[in-house]
Every structure is written in C-alpha cells, then in structure tokens.
Design brief:
alpha/beta; TIM Barrel
Length: 296
Amino acid sequence: MMDMHGVYTALITPFDSDGKPDLAGLRKNIRFQIEEGVDGIVPLGTTGETPTLSDTEQEAVIRVAVAEAHGKINVMVGTGSNSTAKTIEYTQRAKALGADAALIVTPYYNKPTQEGIYQHFKAITEAVDLPILVYNIQGRSGVNIHTVTLKRIAGLRNIIGVKEASGNVEQMMEVIQQIQHQYPHFCVMSGDDGLTLPLLSLGGKGVVSVASNLVPGEVVGMVKAALAGDFAQARKKHFELLPLFKAIFVETNPIPVKESMSMVGMPSGSCRLPLCALMPENRAKLQHVLQEMHLV
C-alpha cells in the first residue's frame, strides 16, 4: 500500500496568451516543485481548473506530469467527477498514463446519500487497481462524507487516505482517532493550507497544498518540522506563511494563486471562464502580502 505523507502540490494549469495549456510552463513549474523538495504533485485537481479542460488537454497535462516526475516524486492525478462511470474511465486513463495514485472527490451536484458515496468508491476500487485518496470538500461538492461512511470506504482495497477539506477540525479528529488508528496505511491529509499545522499536531500526515505552487520550499519546511515533532519551528513557519494562506483564498481558488504566480514571474496565465480576473482591490491586497514576504 502506498505510504502517503508530506507535501503534495495541487498544481495550477498554466495557460498561454491564447488561452491554451502552456505545457512548457507546466514543465517548468513541476521542475521547480521537484527542486524544492515536495513529495508529490497533483495535476487535474480543483486548482488545475480541470472542469474547463478538454479530454485531450487533460491527457496532455498528465503526460507532462508523469514525464517530469517519474522516478523523482509521486504523481497523483485528480480523476473525480459526479459520474461513477466517468470517474472509473478517468482513473483508468490516469493509471494507463503512469500515475502513481488518484485523487477522487465526492460526487458533486448530484448530492448522493452516504450509501451512494460508499457505493461510488466501492465501484471505482473494484474497477481500477490504483491507490486512491478520497477528497472530502463539502463546500464544493455539496455533501459531507460522514466519519462512519469514510470508515467503510477505508476498508476498501487501494484506499490510502483522505484529503480533508471540510474545515471541521472536530471531524478531522474523529477521522484520525477512529480510522487512521485502525488502518495504519490510511493517511489524513489537509486540504486547507491554513489548517495544515493544526491537523499535523493531531496526527495528520501532510497537506495537498495550493500555497506550495508559489512557495513549495517554505511549505515543505513547515510540514517536515511538524512531522519531526519540532512544533516550535513548525509554528514559526506557519505564522510566517499565514498571511499568504489567507491571501490566496481571498477569492475563488485558483484565481488568487495564479495571480500571485504571475506577479512573481512564474508560468501561470489567466483563468478560464467562468473564473475571471481578480478584483482590483483584492489584487492590491495580494500584492501587499507578496511584498511583505519579499516575494516581489
């Protein structure tokens, strides 16, 4: 079973001036991630604007990610959708293209019952032999995976853990206490940069980070310190990064982080509609934070 821990960067998808995926820019960003010591990358997640990418574009992104990261760090591809059949198809594609794991979000819009959520993941694990990280984010999917349901899912083959982005610390504690302790291979990863340190202090294993697109080395330093038990150093890093954690969520992700990357000269580009440019007043706030952190 895959041992997942540390920092996994939820990659943006950079676009060129014509609005097409900037694959050369993506390569550059991935190489930067590897150089800065992250444990893995996550292409085609929320931060990658995946719903706006065609199947051909998605395949191209996976191919670049696998080619750059193979043998160096793990590639966990976002393969979730609100159709179980399509999710199976996307997960099979990720495996065929060389992904090390899949990140699968709770089906959104449909609002399945807890039994439906379980059956969704059961069908996927029966159809595809690939490590799977469950992605629980009620704010985007419209439904929360209850701890009792997640415990059932954890017993399925190839389920390696959960990206916990419910924002509910009490629920995170329940998951660590009731599931991670029962299944040693099951990891609880933060899905919220601002809650990474609190989660690690409770026994979480790492983070799927948005901020690490911009400052991977800093996020790696914080997480490594916490996992080593040096919470004084981890807390220091956390508070240094906290203004950035807040600023990159001043509007819908990934609008602010892509703007941040553009400001510092990294491949980024604009977002695709229906996401639009950052509001001027928020751009000013973001620029101030980056200046205070000496990033621009």
